């Protein structure tokens, strides 16, 4: 897909009808040839920018869910993709769906056509769609895939919201404090000092703090940024990513959120692949392809190696020291009774629900705590700012 370029065209058909659209081609010449094969004489052809943000999960889920509905209604796969291409509001998706439709009309399978677009369709999609083609249950696989992706997207947004809220509140509090220390409080104290009267102790402390911040602002800024510099410089380094995740997982609340979200993803994907008829080892390989963090990839790799060597699934999970005792117990029960798929789905639902509850509880607890902290800080500054004014009458009388 990296060699493809997006082109917007306008031209005339053989019936002299003016039409326009978008298509993918490696260069201008290939784009012109593609239009000629469609019986279109190009009047204008210009290259369009490709936005990676449009390859997000929301659009993929909507497309695959609509495709499942069209297949259930009796449309062929090629006709369904062409219909979706005509209705889609994003030009690069229009061109992609139209390209897929043409590939299918030429005899290619959907999984083979999707394999050429890794940025738009991750490995899990390829595995599920290929399984649907082999088993003849493409409609069901597409529907299950859309539901799984929506559920994971919802829980991801929930966790991000819970972690983002305190950062926003604290940032606003810091901005207010800096504004009051840097601009408001000095004006009040300058007026009060004209009366040659000593400032109240609280005001003096706050002013010294403000002066210290002004004098050593660069050092303070570097000190604050110092813990974040390794993350900015080494964010793509696997060893740093593993070290950073260990720290995050050790945190009381944030660690539980991150762990719960990832365990929910792991069990959901494994349950989905089991329901589609994919073997557990193949499901682990598919799961590993969906993970981006090296720590979780290492966990699944070790799990795959242990199971392939003959170890039971629950024992392999126990050796990884990542999964909870409840996980081990349910997986062992499912493996023994032959209901592994159901147990994996139960674990996915359990961790998803727990993560939702934890994120909601975190938000409800952080809100009053942050309000108290920010209120105390800003209240102290306001008192320090207005305390000299309370004694202004005495100062004027003394000056008179």
Automatic annotation (TrEMBL):
The entry's keywords: Cell inner membrane, Cell membrane, Membrane, Transmembrane, Transmembrane helix, Transport
Primary localization class, coarse: membrane
Membrane spanning residue stretches: 165-185, 216-234, 369-390
The keyword Repressor belongs to this UniProt entry's keyword annotation: no
UniProt key word Membrane: yes
InterPro entries: GspF/PilC, T2SS_GspF/T4SS_PilC_CS, T2SS_GspF_dom, T2SS_GspF_sf
Location within or outside the cell: Cell inner membrane
Membrane topology label: Multi-pass membrane protein
Family: Belongs to the GSP F family.
Protein name: Protein transport protein HofC
Natural source organism: Pseudocitrobacter cyperus
């Amino acid at each position: 897909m990296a060699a493809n370029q997006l082109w917007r065209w306008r031209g005339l058909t053989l019936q002299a009808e003016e039409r326009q659209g978008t298509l993918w081609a490696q260069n201008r010449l290939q784009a012109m040839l593609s239009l000629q094969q469609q019986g279109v004489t190009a009047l204008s052809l210009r290259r369009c920018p490709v936005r990676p943000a449009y390859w997000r999960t929301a659009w993929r889920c909507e497309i695959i869910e609509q495709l499942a509905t069209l297949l259930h209604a009796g449309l062929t796969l090629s006709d369904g993709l062409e219909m979706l291409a005509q209705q889609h509001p994003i030009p690069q998706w229009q061109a992609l769906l139209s390209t897929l439709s043409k590939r299918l009309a030429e005899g290619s399978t959907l999984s083979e056509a999707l394999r050429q677009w890794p940025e738009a369709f991750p490995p899990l999609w390829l595995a599920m769609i290929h399984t649907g083609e082999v088993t003849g249950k493409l409609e069901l696989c597409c529907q299950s895939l859309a539901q799984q992706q929506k559920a994971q997207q919802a829980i991801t947004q929930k966790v991000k919201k819970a972690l983002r809220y305190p950062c926003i509140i604290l940032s606003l509090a810091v901005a207010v404090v800096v504004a009051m220390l840097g601009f408001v409080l000095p004006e009040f104290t300058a007026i009060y000092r004209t009366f040659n009267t000593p400032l109240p102790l609280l005001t003096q402390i706050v002013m010294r703090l403000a002066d210290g911040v002004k004098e050593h602002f660069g050092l303070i800024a570097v000190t604050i940024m110092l813990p974040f510099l390794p993350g900015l410089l080494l964010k793509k380094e696997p060893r740093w990513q593993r070290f950073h995740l260990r720290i995050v997982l050790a945190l009381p609340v944030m660690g539980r959120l991150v762990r719960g979200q990832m365990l929910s993803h792991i069990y959901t994907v494994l349950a989905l692949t089991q329901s589609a008829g994919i073997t557990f080892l193949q499901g682990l390989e598919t799961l590993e392809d969906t993970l981006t963090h090296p720590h979780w990839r290492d966990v699944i790799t070790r799990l795959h190696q242990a199971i392939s060597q003959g170890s039971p699934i629950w024992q392999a999970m126990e050796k990884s020291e990542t999964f909870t005792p409840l996980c081990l117990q349910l997986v062992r029960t499912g493996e023994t009774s032959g209901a592994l798929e159901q147990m994996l789905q139960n674990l996915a639902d359990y961790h998803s629900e727990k993560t939702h509850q934890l994120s909601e509880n975190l938000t409800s607890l952080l809100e009053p705590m942050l309000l108290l902290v920010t209120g105390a800080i800003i209240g102290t500054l306001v008192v320090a700012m207005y305390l000299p004014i309370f004694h202004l009458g005495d100062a004027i009388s003394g000056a008179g």
